[in-house]
Each structure stands twice: as structure tokens, then as C-alpha cells.
Write a structure and sequence with these properties.
The protein is α+β, with helices and mostly antiparallel strands. It is about 15% helix and about 50% strand. It has helices at about 1-15, 20-25, 105-110; strands spanning about 25-40, 40-45, 55-60, 60-70, 85-90, 95-105, 115-125, 130-135, 140-145. It has an eight-stranded antiparallel β-barrel with strand order 1-3-4-5-6-7-8-9. The longest helix is centred in the first third of the chain and has 12 residues, at about 1-15. The radius of gyration is 20 Å and the shape is globular.
Amino acid sequence: MITTVVALAIHACAPPQTASKTLGLQGVWNRIGTINYEDGKPKDTVLFDVKSKQLKFYTTENFMFVANGEWLDSLGVDRNIGFAGNGTYEVKNDSLFEYMSFGTDNYLKWIEGGDKTYRVKISLSENHYTQYGLDSLGKGMGELYKRVE
């Protein structure tokens, strides 16, 4: 009896044997750069425009993103109204799937076309992650994020 109680106590206090990538994605992320890929490998990283802001928020099942930059017309008026969206998400193997639900007007026009799932490859570490897409030749780009919280 005592052996059973001790075994149950040890099991209850032990950390889970497997950690989900989804749990690693939880938090607030700030976009800090763009990574260019060639032959399926990162080739160059360009810092994100300091006049722009792009944040992503992930909970256990939901996500939200907000983005705004500067796009000045010939009169110097900022025409970038920004955009935002939210929905649910999951990470499967090396891919991130975001299932869009709601968003700003220009974002809603995009998802009303029927493309409500955003799928990209993901590379995740404790404090950084990259979401990226590559063509059949291994060329593409990715968004580099740093964990804020």
C-alpha cells in the first residue's frame, strides 16, 4: 500500500514525458526580421522595418495577430490602415496551421475568398520562431519572431 502511494506521488510530480510544440508557441511574439531561403536553407536575414509592427499572440488553442506599417502616398499621408485577425491553430510535425475566424475589413476580404487556413512551415526554439514557405526549388522567405512574453 505504501509503495503504491509513493509511486503515485512520484508519478504526479514528474514532468510530462513529451512536450507539445503548441505549448512552446504560447505567448506573445514580435516580428523582428525576414529570412530569405535558398536551396531550402536560410541565406540572409533582413531586420524588420522599424516603422512597422507585427505581433502574434498564442494561447493553448487560439491566436491573434495585429500588424501595421507605414505606406506613405505622394502627399505624405499614411495609407496603411493595418490589419488584424484571429482564430484557432495547431502545430503538426513541422507545420503551423492557423484557422482564421475574424479580422479587419481587408483581412475579411481575403478569407471570404474561401482561403481560411493559413499553413506554413515552422521552426521553433524557446525564444524565437520562424514561419516560412518554400517553393519546389527551396527558395522562399520566412517571418522571424522573438518572444516578448
